[in-house]
Amino acid sequence: MKQAITLIVLVVIAWIGYEVHAAGRDETPPPAPQPVVMQKGKAHGERLSTPSWSIEYDRVIGNPDQSLLNLEGVRNGVFYRNGKPYLHLHAAHVTVNTVTHDFTASGPFHVETVDRVHFRTIDTTEAVWTQTSKHLFLPKKTRIGTGAKAKPLIADGITVDVNSGDIHMEHVRGGLSP
Questions:
Q1: What are the domain boundaries of the chain?
Q2: Which positions ≥6 away from 87 have C-beta within 8 Å?
Q3: CB atoms inside a 10 Å sphere around CB 160
Q4: What does pLDDT average to over the chain?
């Protein structure tokens, strides 16, 4: 009799073990997070109650938690200082980390000042902004202009430290008019 009870207990334990092992086999796994895609739109940001920036875009692809955004066809970008526009931006592609506020731009990248007295344009194919150090790195050939009649300044790479105002340029040629 003891052997029969032991055998029954072992069979029940084996059966429970099998059922626990097999419990999740037929379940469908949760769906993988999908990127968020937005077509043709406009976005803007504010600092307290004044505008900080605004852009129009052809397409934005964001990861599921929206911490990384890939913008394509960025145009009519405006950056504000003290509530007034001071820079215009156009870029083929921009990737923005919404947590760190770092960004990279690639393809044709054009920035110009709004101030016509101290007008400047910057044209390049790659730009990297690091928010924590406030550094702008333009690693490719960059053209800086001051107007249609002025000869542009061309550098093979530029690093700007916004905090200190230091600018480092590599292989500079051309000139700027006042």
A1: 33-174
A2: 77, 78, 79, 111, 112, 113, 114
A3: 17
A4: 85
